[in-house]
Amino acid sequence: MRKRSVTVRVARWSALHPWRAIVGWLVFVALCLGGGIAAGTNSATSEDFRVGEAGRAEALATGGGIPLRSTEHILIRAAAGSWDKPGPLDRAAADAAVKDITDRMRALPEVASVKAPVPSADGRVLRVPVELTGSEQDDQDRVPPLQAQTEKAAEAHPDLRIEETGDASVSKGVDGQRDKDLKFSEAITLPVTLITLAVVFGSVVMVGVPLLLAITSIMATMGLAMVASHLLPDTGVGMSMILLIGMAVGVDYTLFYLKREREERARAGGRLTSEALVEAAAATAGRAIVVSGLAVIVSTTALFLARDVIFDSLATGTILVVAVAVVSSVTVLPALLVTLGRRTERRAAKRAARGKPVRSPGSHRSHGSHGSQGSDFSDGSDVSYGSDVSYGEKKPGRAWSALLAPARKRPALTLCLSVLVMLGLAVPALDMNLKNPARDSFSREIPAMRGYDTLLETFPEQRLRHLVVVRAEAARAADVKAALEELDRRAQDDPLFSHPARTPLLRTSEDRRTTTLELNAPHPTYSKKAEDSLDRIRHDHLPATVGRLPGVETAVTGEVARGVDYVGHQNEKLPLVLGFLLLMTFVMTVFAFRSVVLGLLGVVLNLLSAASALGILVLVFQGEWAEELLSFISLGGISSRVPLFLFVILFGLSMDYQVFVVSRIREAALNGVPTRQAVIDGITSSAKVVTSAAIVMVTVFASFVMLHILEMKQMGLVLAVAVLLDAFVIRVMILPAALLLLGRATWWPSGAIRRAGARAAGRRGTGEQVAGEQVEGERAVAEQVAGERHTGADHARPEGRRIAQGR
């Protein structure tokens, strides 16, 4: 007897000690969550976000003693009139409000300075700049006291409209809105997931099993992520990813395991105990889940190659939640199934003792067509977990038969047409324009964003700020200042920049080695003119002025500079990440199925699926036609993080379906079934679980489209579309058609399938019945163990005395 795998041994222990496994899992979740709360979250600092020249400029400024601080703007206008057309401002009342606000702000420890009020060009609005202490990254934690004082000032001056806006208040509003959005997403996801699982299982009890494991896995991962943040700082997006991916893969893995346990129960016909059934399921489904989870984890590690703190946070959350979901599926899930199975056996025994008829697990019922209602197994058996769980599996219905018919009857034509459709969907991706999401794209439901619009309307020069940072010897301070003044004059004559009547906005450090110059432009941060203004500074004005001084170090930062440098950084890393993904997809597929052909096919299918999803993303979000439909403001491009994130996550999730479907096909082929029939049998047998998992995933991802954050909308849409295409086009049309055309070449260079076919042919020639070859030796081991139990070998222990009733 071959040695049982770790997956089977763990499942066996869990099945024999179900309550220990369940309690152990709950303790593990509690320890993870408690440990995370005790450790707290280590949030990323401004230094962690620095990239490219913009990051270098910020390091020069802060290192030279010129801190980069956020500025809040208190806007004062008349109460009469509308927001876009304010009435005339009462200067006496406005001056009183300015004095009140100035006194309130200066009394706060979070405020570094309050500057003199600045009137708008038409004199209808006053702006009071308030500079915060600390760094830009931390200022959103300092802004609540300022907002509270602004509200009190507004109450004290009811004849005026007083509002606050700025980078810190906008960031605070975005974080608050993100939290509300996640709660909204949960409110949508959970009911739809419940309905989907209820349709699949027809049982309240069995609906709770996948949901319970997914939720507890997410809880444990959140605690682990808090601990991990002390090694890789958290950026605030990791928890969102844990929820997004955790619910999807948690339910996905549980569905696949449950599906296989159902089949084993039907095949056994009441001859095996519940413990033996979960062992048999662990030998196949358990291994597939582990391989699938490893594929997602290995694919996600590619995000670390991007060398970006946000992707580090996304990767950490995804890897942790997938690992925990795999552990829950192969440890506590068998215990839950055995517990439910034993309850059914006890109920059946009580019914038999009372002389009531008990349906045999191997009995047959006629249900008519494949699409009929009931709990049908492929062999017609019906097994019931009491009154709660109908433990059967429907044969593929008419809908699935119709979907699979083209690939089965005309594989070459189906393959060509399907690939052409996918390539057609991918065409818009060729015009993809990557953008770094800017404040202009945030929802106007955030009060600070409404104030931001008012600020930009009345003070257009505040739209955009470029900060030039110069580092030189103290003896060159005068030359640096003169050169920067010349740069400012050039900008004043350049139509790309604002031209307010003012002295140059220069700041010099105490040691006179670092000097900064602020330049403003009246363009939206994501516009082409904004990027042109940055390019003009970096490549024209700066080299012609400060750049001529010897021994001087210069750099330019600002919101546009950060965005441009970030996109450039991502474009630089994309080939490396994509190459790693392609290599790992190939390696993991070859490892799982011992086939180079399947490895190459998996790479091509994943690329096709990702490209098609990106094409639809560009079609929807890069233009303006869907703005009202999906409630967003188009940037004329796609968030720079989305394509890289899509490739990594989609390559991992696609391996779920690849492993689940192809493992069934390979299993049938190893049992001696001809490759053509094995393809059809494998896809039809996994059709229901793939569809159900896809529906759950699409629901989770699609709920993010209804959120307010543009980047989350784009991620939600692209992942939902990608999963739909992968489940219903790649796995139903392209994959079966390709495998049918490849035939036995699918398994090259492995000879296991060829040898299995030869053995099956020999047995058929001698009249032997093919009872089914063992798959990697595991199912035979599980069934042999089950047979030992029936002879009493394993039933000396109380845990093993639960034998299915041989009614």
Global mean pLDDT: 81
Q: How helical, in percent, are the residues?
A: 55-70%
CATH superfamily of the largest domain: Multidrug efflux transporter AcrB transmembrane domain
Q: What amount of the residues lies in strands?
A: 5-15%
Number of beta strands: 13
Q: Kindly report the CATH topology of the largest domain.
A: Multidrug efflux transporter AcrB transmembrane fold
Helix-and-strand structural type: alpha+beta
Itemize the secondary structure elements and their pairings.
Blueprint: H1 6-16, H2 18-39, H3 52-63, E1 71-78, H4 91-106, E2 111-114, E3 118-119, E4 125-132, H5 143-156, E5 160-166, H6 167-201, H7 204-228, H8 238-268, H9 274-300, H10 309-330, H11 332-353, E6 383-385, E7 389-391, H12 398-409, H13 411-426, E8 434-435, H14 447-458, E9 464-471, H15 477-492, E10 505-508, E11 514-521, H16 528-544, E12 553-557, H17 559-593, H18 596-621, H19 627-630, E13 638-639, H20 641-670, H21 675-703, H22 710-742, H23 752-765, H24 778-790
Parallel strand pairs: 8-13
Antiparallel strand pairs: 1-4, 1-5, 2-4, 3-4, 6-7, 9-11, 9-12, 10-11
